[in-house]
Amino acid sequence: MKIHIYTIIFLILINFSSPTVKGQTQVPSASPGDVPPPYQILKKGIAENNYLAPLLELREREAEYLASRRRKGQYLDYMALINSYVGDYAALYEYEEKFLESLEPVNRTRASFAKEITSSPIDPYQPRAALAAIASMADGQQVIMINEEHRTPLHRAFTLRLLPLLYAGGFRYFAAETLNKSDAAELNRRGYPTQKSGTYSADPVYGDLIRTALKVGFKVVPYDVDDLNCTPQPDNPLSCQDERERGQAQNLYDRILKQDPQAKILVHAGRDHNAETQEEGFSMMAWHFRDITKINPFTIDQMHLSERRNPADEEPLYRYVTGKWKLPETTVFQSADRDFWKAGTNHDLKVFHPRARYENNRPTWQHRGG
After folding, report:
1. Cα gap 301→134, rounded to integer Å
2. Which of 252, 274, 273 is nearest to 264 (CA)?
3. Which residues pair with 265 in a beta bridge?
4. Please, what is the end-to-end C-alpha distance for the chain in angstroms?
5. C-alpha distances in angstroms, 216 versus 107, 248, 256, 264?
6. Residue 33 burial (CB count, 10 A)
């Protein structure tokens, strides 16, 4: 089975305790003569509601960071992130591509993605507008979990467009991985997020997602593990991540279902946390959720079949589908028996986002929703 590039990133960030992984925010201090961690510069600026200062400082010191073996990868990662926050998507994907090139496992995956395909098991399925398709099946679901790639605000914009449709279908709770428990009560009273509300909610698109959820009428709930004090087991280096995954699932039960067993919940998760996957010594949050609650969540993956700057980072199926169908909108595929195409057992539904179109150097998906 091919491993997607963003699954590789997910596992690499776990192993190296990157500060982009909430719950593992131990950021190494700067060594004598080394440049400071870019996360510290970014965090300071965002705390002051100043996005340009850290961007300009990091850009000015780019040569130093690229020359640092310890900080180069962190720098490329966070430059992609801060450029997404200021809406410079061309720069975002340029830095993301450089970050991916710095990861040796990604280069091997690119080689496996290089071959084009001329047919696919998806061919008998018919394209359908994703929003309408998800809304149509939501009545039969109690919990829907949708994911995002943290550097792709498009994914947040799509979840935003789902909010009124799912609210009309009886969903009343919006659980977001990025949110801080410490601000949860005040956030719901206030009606909008601030910088203390969460991590990725510093992105204006994510902030708009949370603000819209509150405006529509959802109760917004944080569910990530705030303080993960864990030492990996000697025979299982991923044991602490497994503890985090189970903690997330337990929080969803404790903070929502324990008080409201019939609650209908939309969960917006990072990367592959919503995969229904169990491996030896390591299981994802969605698997733990089903184990704890006995509720089988409907899981939607919008991360793996999205456009990237370098086509080598796209799955061959994505290139095939966008070439054959010229997708005009975010799309799912459904059979004559109304089964969704999903490819494997990790998720119940795969979403295909169309290739971006730009007007005045801004992607047109920004015009929708919100």
Report:
1. 12
2. 252
3. 143, 173
4. 38
5. 43, 25, 18, 15
6. 6
Please state, in angstroms and as integers, the Cα–Cα distance from residue 246 to each residue in 62, 230, 252, 336, following that order.
38, 13, 10, 37
Rounded Cα–Cα distance for residues 135 and 153 (Å) = 21
Domain locations in the chain as residue ranges:
5-113, 126-367
* Helix, strand or coil, per DSSP, at residue 138: helix
Cα–chain center distance at 46:
20
- Band of pLDDT at residue 18, cut at 50, 70 and 90: very low
CATH of domain 126-367: 3.40.50.11550
**Helical axes 89-101 vs 72-85, angle rounded to 10°:** 160
Tell me the C-alpha distance between 67 and 57, whole Å: 16
How far is the C-alpha of 127 from the C-alpha of 225, rounded, in Å?
Answer: 38
Q: Which helix (H) or strand (E) holds 148?
A: strand 143-148
- 3-class SS at 301? strand
The count of residues in the chain is: 370
| Nearest alpha-carbon partner for 216 in 269, 148, 166 | 166
pLDDT in tens, 84-128: 999 999 999 999 999 988 887 777 788 888 889 999 999 999 999
Q: Is 31 in contact with 38 (CB distance < 8 Å)?
A: no
CB 298 within 8 A of CB 351: no
The amino acid at residue 177 is E
Structure tokens at 321: 């589908």
Quickly list H helices, the chain. 5-15, 38-47, 52-60, 62-67, 72-85, 89-101, 104-113, 130-137, 153-168, 184-190, 204-216, 239-252, 285-293, 316-325
Which amino acid would we find at residue 370?
G
CB-neighbour burial class of residue 67 (10 A; exposed 0-12, middle 13-18, buried 19+): exposed
Q: What is the pTM of this model?
A: 0.91
- pLDDT, tens digit (0-9, with 9 covering 90-100), for 285-336: 999 999 999 999 999 999 999 999 889 889 999 999 999 999 999 999 999 9
pLDDT of 23 > 80? The answer is no
For the record, the structure tokens of 366 come out as 């920004």
Beta bridge partners of 350: 301
SS3 at position 36: coil
The C-alpha atoms of residue 77 and residue 317 are separated, in whole angstroms, by: 26
